[in-house]
Design a protein that fits this description.
Number of helices: 13
Radius of gyration: 24 Å
Order of helices and strands: EEEHEHEHHHEHEHEEHHEEHHHH
Largest sheet: 6 strands, mixed
Amino acid sequence: MNFFAFELEGISFEYQGGQKALDSVDLAIPFGESLTVLGTNGSGKSTLLYILQGLLTPSSGAIKVFGGKAFTPSKRARICMMFQNSQAQLFSLTVLDELMFGPLQHGLAEQEARGRAEDIMELLGISPLANRSPWQLSGGEMKKVALGTCLSTNPDVYLLDEPTSGLDPRSQVALVDLVMKLRESGKTIITATHDLHIIEDISGRSIVIGEDHKVLADGPSIEVLKMNDVLLKANLIHEHSHWHEGYTHKHSHFGVHEHAADKGEAGIEGQPPEAEQKFGKGGFYQNMGDLGGKLKILLEHWQEHNAEHAKTYLEWAEKAQAEGRSELAATLREIARESGRLEELFRKAESQL
């Protein structure tokens, strides 16, 4: 018995004109696995999904689909792709027609296809859009309809290309919850994204494709998220970011963190040379002599990231509210409001230099 949905060996792909998209990719994806394909725009994530869908043929290398080399109609019926650009996926006159199209092509009677479409619209919260034209919807609404077209055929494999892009925080939470349910049901789910926030929830395994179109890492999602050097090389985080158990926290590593200062360190390994010029080799807390210059830089930095933090608190408040945790949501909103007070204090300190 074959245990793999896909087996790729030495897969490369070049578009016309010699534009390389993938370079010597080896990848085996078992049935029932939830895999995240991480990479920046242009790294080849979407191209990989197109190959798995059978929309593109590799320039070189070999691919097996469900144990065989050919993309037969029966195999294609077991795979559904949600495109990054939903407009490329939708073509019917109404949302209801979109969601009935796949089931009808699979041989369902019209009444049964309609019932399935109505169930999916209710699941996705888009029932009021049933008679609307897909092209008159917002980007987020179109994304939900595109996902609905995949759900309507009940495939074995879901290929999701940047599924959270264009969605508001509440819709992102709902989508992640849905993917988690699909995982629990044993579906094979392959998600291409550069959104690090959702990875631990939607996948047990992740691969990273670099800007050179090669696979840089392959392993458990929680471990891949700790590979700062790999994420930096792939341009998924910048050199002042690191991962904090489920979310990226962007801030300086020039020795201003307590954990760095306690050790007398100047931040993460590989800090840029300008860090030493600004804060000294021993870190900020060991070099307080030049209050004017160094503290001014720090205050500007703190002000900048205080605004980022406030935005993050509000985003998580939305997610908490969507899960029915109203008290937590209220507390997070209060933290965001209090961030405004910090902004005033930063400006006050800056004026006193």
